[in-house]
Amino acid sequence: MATCNYHIASSQAKLQHLLVQDATGAYRVADDDYVVEAARKVLERQFRPGLSLTSPSNAKEYLQLKLAFLEHEVFATIWLDCQHRVIAYEELFRGTIDSAAVYTREVVKAALQHNAAAVIFVHNHPSGASAPSDADKQITKRLVDALGLIDLRVIDHMIVAGSDVLSFAEERLL
Description:
There is one protein chain. It contains 4 helices and 8 strands. The chain is an alpha+beta fold. The chain has a domain at about 50-165: Cytidine Deaminase, domain 2. The strands form 2 sheets. Strands 5-4-6-7-8 form a 5-stranded mixed β-sheet, sandwiched between helices. A 3-stranded antiparallel β-sheet has the order 1-2-3, with no helix packed on it. It is globular and about 60 Å long.
């Protein structure tokens, strides 16, 4: 699908379908995967380097679309400059269905490579349970302590669990 022309069509049964126009000009019903992928692309354009993050809600939609449907855990970072503008989103570690190994040394190394002043951690829970585990709390504390040594602030740690996104900052866990 090279073009992004959208059209809502109604059938006699009053069902609505989103139609997309393909490269040949023909219209077809957009399936759920196509719609989600198109939404991801729109959010990628909006969640770009230089974007200022002023609250946890700014990042939640983006992270939810990025991680909610994965069947394995991912630990990622959003590197920020001193005015909390996005430098980069980076997936650092990939795990299994219920865990991901996170190495403090690699996180510090990535922070220095990006010349970041602040960071938001994010990982997903494929189980759909957003409550942070003891391991989630421990790795967050370890990373906060390590990054504090190089004057890098941890702004938040978010857990994406299906349609729910938990913010450590909002829950006062940081």
